[in-house]
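[job 4471] stage=fold_predict status=RUNNING
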Amino acid sequence: MQVVKAPNPALRVQTKQVKKITPGLKTTLKEMIKLTKTFKDPEGVGLASTQVSLNEAFFVVKDKEKFISVINPKVISASKKTKLYFEGCLSTPNIWGEVKRHIGIKVSFMDETGKLQTKALKGILAWIFQHEIDHINGIIFQDRVLEQKGKFYKFTGKDKTGTDTFEEMTI
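[job 4471] inference complete, writing structure tokens
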């Protein structure tokens, strides 16, 4: 299993709902978590099915120190208040952008056991969920940057203090 890179058409797939939690799906979710953990700089905090060329609605996200599996997610409500996030993606290395996202969302989804979960999410976790939900709907963050008339940045390395440096770019 590996992460596909843009412009791979798998990233544009609108996924189908998972009909049944199978042993194969559970194995795939575990493999996705393992793969996401291999990304260190920047750290991998989420990975959607489309990023590994699969077409069902699921992803994994890092919640504090553990990963959770999210199957058939649905946004129930979203805060009116938004925040501009500096966003990147494992499928588009070294490209970053400013994306406005809701600071809070309420979502329902199944976990890897098939249990229905409903959660109110805020801050970084809400942002990661929105990014991954976009992925399973065939949307990449660059689409959001363009529709919001935001800016793109290219990772240029680290300065003397070890801080990441970026340069504005056009796509």
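[job 4471] summary: The chain has a mean pLDDT of 95.
[job 4471] exit 0
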